[in-house]
Fold:
Amino acid sequence: AQSVAQPEDQVNVAEGNPLTVKCTYSVSGNPYLFWYVQYPNRGLQFLLKYITGDNLVKGSYGFEAEFNKSQTSFHLKKPSALVSDSALYFCAVRAPGSARQLTFGSGTQLTVLP
Amino acid sequence: GAVVSQHPSWVICKSGTSVKIECRSLDFQATTMFWYRQFPKQSLMLMATSNEGSKATYEQGVEKDKFLINHASLTLSTLTVTSAHPEDSSFYICSASPPGGGYEQYFGPGTRLTVT
Structure:
């Protein structure tokens, strides 16, 4: 069975500082990994994905994530945080060859302080 | 990009009544759609996989007679909460993947259900 762990329920960072939201996964085979963002009372918005290729993937709104196979991690990063980045972030995994449903982490609430 | 809509965005109903939630893929056809449930400040829990033209696949613990799913066309899936009770109050979100790869899912804006 596949699983995702987001070890931090809450991350606080000052505006302009770099941010990192952590994610580790467990899956058989090479994983498909995703990051989504959710604003209050809204659905999820797709940020970025890793399927294959370069370990560093770039996505929407200046976010990027690094796939690390040896550490089974896929941390989300941004060089300079904005107040508008404050939201709930979800990491998700799908095992290749499986049905298309995703397994989500528990979510990390990011708060960027002005 | 791919767009998924949901209707209604919020609904209040009385205990014992039924509520239908629609999920539409606006610019692509989706043979499969997914229904999730989300409690406040918690993650998404997959309820069922909706398959066009066939029966939905429900996750363990989800009552199929209570949460009726119909996927009658390639752009529409509906979730009906039958005989709703206050404990069914939640945020319901659907998703779908455009055909042809990409692998990511696109999510609807969600429906807030409150049962009084």
About this structure: The longest strand of chain B covers residues 44-51. The interface with chain A takes residues 1, 4, 6, 32, 34, 41-44, 46, 49, 91, 93, 95, 97, 103-110, 112 of chain B (CB under 8 Å). Chain B has a mean pLDDT of 92. The two ends of chain B are 37 Å apart (CA to CA).
